[in-house]
From TrEMBL:
The keyword Membrane applies. This is Uncharacterized protein. GO terms for cellular component: mitochondrion. The chain crosses the membrane at residues 18-39.
């Protein structure tokens, strides 16, 4: 039996259709935006190349900045004759939602957040636009090619596989007196290159020691 066709059927309510399409648009947009947060951490790293995203709690960010500022205050300024005084450079390696980078900027650092997740990068830039930090930017770049020697402070959430991969780069590039601040994990086996200068809870602050850098350079030259 064929379905009966009724030319006088009542058309859908336009308001209902607008609500439906609006809901569908919001649902699809939200899904696309949240995809890297939810789905990508479960995918093999070969497919995405990113580490699972975990947010650093605000209280630990505050602890990290306190340890960093206390250490900086205990040392003479690197260039006391500079006018105006130069801001120290802070980089968050894997900046996520951008909170640590933004807070570092408000703490008077020239702050950079490095993040490869496009959704997190967009979120960070929007958050920065809203909060208006004085000196803050976010970009997507390969951590292996990022010049660590250009920064006074390196901050990391501390994902162990990434730390292990970056250890040789830290040894060769972190400047004398440069600070490395880690949350949760530690720089194991790096006592000859970095000294612990602050620790509170799960946050550990390291400083590159000058004598160790000279020893490393001598070894490096002998190997060439």
């Amino acid at each position: 039996m064929e379905a009966e066709h009724s030319p006088n059927a009542t058309p859908p309510n336009p308001k209902t259709m607008y609500l439906f399409y609006g809901f569908a648009t919001i649902t699809v947009s939200s899904t696309l935006f949240l995809l890297p947060f939810i789905v990508t951490p479960a995918l093999p790293r070969k497919l995405y190349g990113a580490l699972p995203y975990q947010n650093t709690p605000t209280k630990h960010i505050k602890t990290a900045l306190k340890l960093i500022n206390n250490r900086i205050a205990s040392k003479p300024p690197p260039n006391p004759t500079a006018l105006p005084p130069q801001k120290l450079k802070f980089v968050d390696l894997g900046s996520g939602a951008g909170e640590a980078t933004i807070q570092a900027s408000f703490a008077n650092f020239d702050a950079l957040g490095v993040e490869i997740n496009p959704s997190l990068l967009l979120y960070s830039r929007v958050a920065s636009f809203i909060s208006r930090p004085p000196s803050c930017q976010f970009k997507s770049t390969n951590l292996i090619t990022l010049p660590f020697q250009n920064y006074d402070v390196l901050f990391m959430f501390g994902v162990k596989p990434l730390i292990e991969q970056l250890k040789p780069k830290m040894i060769s590039e972190v400047r004398i007196g440069g600070l490395v601040c880690l949350y949760r994990f530690k720089l194991t086996g790096m006592d000859e290159h970095f000294e612990i200068v602050g620790r509170e809870g799960e946050v550990t602050l390291y400083e590159r020691t000058p004598s160790k850098i000279n020893e490393y350079n001598k070894i490096k030259l002998n190997l060439i």
